[in-house]
């Protein structure tokens, strides 16, 4: 089987030369392990951070080794109790065609309840991030006005829809293309949306939410966060989930310049990591899974075909080539 290695640490934007496709032996699993043929790989923004040799909440990828990431696939051989060939599993050894996974780090998923790859997106880590971030970290209340950036992505599209389904008075999203903006309003039920590439965020947000907002779900950072701080009401909350606008920056951004207004407005700006919120998993799957089945919550995937194209998928994600969850179909 083949696997993708990181071979150089990107400076600024990653390039294909930072990665290499390497052939690796596929061996029978040792006791307590399973061999999985991956079907879908996840590419996620956090992976960019793991390519740097910097201390962070997740350790850096080692140079010359296979990268890690979410994946779903089928067990092809098992030396672990409770796993049989054919079982569908979710695990963390993506970026490879075959994964030799410790059984205690593999989770069986119900391929009948949802398409396998949904466990990497709407019913998986990004979905839980949206759910826990909005409801728990953001302390969303019925009647709140919500603004979410990165709104057409895996996390953002769920944030906006959960807010709406839970009774938000207003849901505004921003995204990087007119087509994404159209979808947010026409298909995802957002009250308003704007393309941040078409003009300043402050002005476009003021037009979309003239009365201001109660909760800001930040996937982007920088100018978006600054604009949201300006629009938040007294006692408003900002969920700092991601800052993708700066992941490839080599110098820190200037914004937000209005941090001092946090004082007078008694705002809460809270960082979050999804890993702290797996106790909400069951509640999340029940509520969001129910909305999916009823057709009240939509989700989209952008699937890049072929293991060879996994790096292109990752680079595309950073550029906004995806709507909804970006996935690689191993084929
Ligand atoms: P998305 O599906 O949202 O994909 C990333 C999107 O970011 C792109 O589609 C692109 O859309 C947008 N983007 C890229 N560059 C910029 C930019 N300069 N300014 C504004 N938007 C940009 O990814 P996810 O849903 O998986 O992740 C969304 C965010 O949530 C990321 O910041 C990620 O790091 C974070 N995250 C945090 C977690 C946590 O535990 N804290 C867990 C999971 C995700 P567009 O066309 O709109 O520009």
Automatic annotation (TrEMBL):
Domain Enoyl reductase (ER): 14-328
GO molecular function: oxidoreductase activity, acting on the CH-CH group of donors, NAD or NADP as acceptor
Pfam families, sorted: ADH_N_2 (PF16884), ADH_zinc_N (PF00107)
Record bears the keyword Oxidoreductase: yes
Record keywords, A-Z: Oxidoreductase
Protein name (record): Enoyl reductase (ER) domain-containing protein
Organismal lineage: Bacteria, Bacillati, Actinomycetota, Actinomycetes, Kitasatosporales
């Amino acid at each position: 089987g083949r696997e993708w290695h990181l071979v150089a640490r990107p400076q600024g934007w990653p390039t294909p030369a930072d990665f290499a496709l390497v052939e690796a032996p596929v061996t029978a699993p040792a006791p307590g392990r399973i061999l999985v043929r991956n079907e879908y790989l996840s590419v996620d923004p956090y992976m960019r951070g793991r390519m740097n040799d910097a201390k962070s909440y997740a350790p850096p990828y080692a140079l010359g080794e296979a990268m890690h990431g979410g994946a779903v696939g089928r067990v092809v051989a098992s030396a672990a109790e409770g796993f049989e060939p054919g079982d569908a599993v979710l695990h963390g050894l993506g970026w490879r065609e075959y994964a030799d996974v410790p059984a205690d780090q593999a989770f069986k998923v119900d391929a009948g309840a949802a398409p396998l790859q949904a466990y990497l997106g709407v019913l998986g880590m990004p979905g839980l991030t949206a759910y826990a971030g909005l409801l728990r970290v953001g302390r969303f209340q019925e009647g709140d006005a919500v603004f979410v950036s990165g709104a057409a992505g895996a996390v953002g599209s769920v944030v906006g829809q959960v807010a709406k389904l839970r009774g938000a008075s207003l849901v505004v999203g921003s995204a990087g293309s007119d087509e994404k903006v159209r979808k947010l309003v026409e298909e995802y039920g957002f009250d308003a949306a704007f393309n941040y590439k078409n003009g300043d965020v402050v002005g476009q947000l003021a037009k979309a939410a003239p009365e201001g907002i109660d909760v800001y779900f930040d996937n982007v950072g920088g100018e978006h966060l600054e604009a949201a701080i300006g629009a938040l009401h007294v006692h408003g909350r900002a969920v700092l989930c991601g800052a993708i606008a700066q992941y490839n920056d080599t110098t820190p951004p200037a914004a937000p310049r209005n941090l001092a207004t946090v004082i007078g407005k008694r705002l809460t700006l809270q960082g979050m990591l999804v890993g702290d919120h797996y106790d909400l998993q069951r509640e999340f799957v029940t509520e969001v899974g129910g909305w999916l089945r009823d057709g009240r919550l939509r989700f989209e995937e952008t699937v890049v075909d072929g293991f060879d194209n996994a790096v292109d998928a990752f680079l595309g994600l950073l550029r906004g080539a995806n709507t909804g969850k970006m996935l690689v179909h191993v084929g």
